[in-house]
Amino acid sequence: MQHVDDITNWKVTKSNELVKAGYTLSLNEQRLILFCIAQIDSRKPFSRIKAVTAAAFAAAYTLETRHAYEALEDATERLWNREVKTRFEDGRVEKVRWVSKATYDRGNGRVTVNFSPEILPFLTLLNERFTSYDLRYISHLTSTYAIRVYEYLKQYVKLRSSIRVTLVDFKEMLELSDSYMRFANFKARILVPAVEQINSHTDLRVSWVVIREQRSVVAIEFRFTKASQQEELPLLPVVEDLDESEAA
DNA sequence: CAAGACAGCAAAGCGTTGTG
DNA sequence: CACAACGCTTTGCTGTCTTG
Asked: C or N terminus of chain A, fewer CB within 10 Å?
């Protein structure tokens, strides 16, 4: 996992709870977080502390190294105040910080991230209800919403070929409840770009239809399949992979 | 009329270039 | 490596037309 040039098989694994939680991250913050998560062995407890070099970050997301410094510095700075909101059945909302410490080592182009203790249950010791995917599939997505939607669909892809989600829940997940009061805007700015990016860069092929009540859109039904070509790539059944490989 | 579609404006974000 | 500046993209909103 240390080799910068070999990110092809890095997997991001997180609990489905986290996949569906409400949070906002800029693209760079999202990239930084996912890069760190990809280095975690989700089956085990772990050190909480992950280091990211500009070179490794640039390699993972196909940027020129010299451009990665400021992206990392900026993302690190902003990550400090970011939080994850988990909504419970009874309406309770629990907020948790992503990081308890995040420092950019100026002069060395290196970030050290300490995940907060409260976020760890979403990332480690996972053996059920989790989602796993290859980091490389989202590495070319340029909309943070595209990444969120990809993860959301990915959690269902083994179980079914479509999922219906209410517009309210969906916007809540993306922390857009108070924005995009007009569906057309949400569609044009979020849905269409996200699905387009997912279809052209990831292993999922997605389409969607709106569900209406009267004339208002109340839900979205996503339909998806795994792309046939990508299927031939070394994408082992996730559960087996996690249970068996290098466990000892 | 209410809600969606479409066009366009503006701010923020992202990637690049040039400079030191 | 850092910083300033530029240009393209992403994101959020408004005006206006279209539709059932």
From this structure: C
List the single protein residue with the shortest CA to C1' distance from C19. Answer: A215
How many CB atoms neighbour CB A153 within 10 A?
24
- Report the pLDDT averaged over residues A25-39: 91
Query: Which nucleotide minimizes the distance between its C1' and the CA of A58?
Result: B15
Crossing angle for the helix pair A27-37 and A65-79, to the nearest 10 degrees: 90
Evaluate if the CB of A63 falls below 7 Å from strand C: no
Taking only the tens place, the pLDDT of each residue in A87-141 is: 888 889 999 999 998 888 887 888 888 999 999 999 988 888 899 999 999 998 9
Q: Is the CB of A217 under 7 A from strand B?
A: yes
Q: Which has the closest alpha carbon to A230: A199, A189, A195?
A: A199
Do the Cβ atoms of A138 and A150 come closer than 8 Å? yes
- Taking residue A114's Cβ as centre, other Cβ atoms within 10 Å add up to 16
Domains and CATH numbers, chain A: 4-122 (1.10.10.10), 141-247 (1.10.10.10)
Please name which of A20, A65, A47 lies closest in space to residue A172, comparing C-alpha atoms: A20
Is the C-beta of residue A182 closer than 7 Å to nucleic acid chain B?
yes
The pTM is what? 0.85
